[in-house]
Design goal:
Elements (H helix, E strand, L loop, with lengths): L6 E10 L5 E6 L11 E3 L6 H13 L6 E6 L4 E4 L15 E11 L15 E7 L4 H4 L5 H10 L5
Parallel strand pairs: 1-6
Antiparallel strand pairs: 1-3, 2-7, 4-6, 5-6
Length: 156
């Protein structure tokens, strides 16, 4: 099997508010104090930007009209799962995700965020300073979050 077949294709969204803080949510399925940016898998035939908008709305309730694309990361970024999570998080045997990342501006207000979606993924949410992201994400995604901060630095 080719290496890329081991990684689930997905997207991630770094959403900035008017104060240049980043939206993060605490997952329902993890009671630990870890926070993440919206992300999700690409459906067959779906384009990455369309996936980003869909996932953002599914996870945060934020309508696509309230999101402006600022930048796209020039590379697909990967993270690998710890061995004990392989086959658990996704029923397929993916060992991690390979993601297109989008930096976006949020054009709405906090009242436009509604995590009580049809299939909720987050139990709470907040805006954080981008530099704090690596400190609040699960350890296996820290390198990816550091890379995003470094590569999107001119916009943060």
């Amino acid at each position: 099997m080719h290496d890329t077949n081991l990684y689930r294709r997905g997207v991630g969204v770094m959403l900035l508010n008017s104060e240049r803080k980043v939206w993060v949510g605490a997952r329902i399925d993890n009671r630990a104090d870890f926070w993440q940016m919206p992300q999700g898998g690409i459906d067959e035939g779906e384009e990455p930007w369309a996936t980003a908008l869909r996932e953002l709305e599914e996870e945060t309730g934020i309508a696509p009209r309230l999101v402006e694309q600022v930048a796209v990361h020039p590379e697909r970024l990967r993270y690998s799962l710890p061995s004990e999570l392989v086959g658990v998080i996704w029923k397929k045997r993916w060992i991690g995700q390979e993601q297109d990342w989008f930096l976006c501006r949020f054009l709405g207000t906090d009242a436009d965020v509604d995590i009580a979606t049809a299939h909720p993924e987050f139990r709470e949410w907040k805006w954080v300073d981008p530099l704090k992201l690596p400190d609040i994400i699960v350890p296996f995604k820290r390198a990816l979050y550091r890379r995003l901060i470094e590569d999107f630095a001119e916009y943060l």
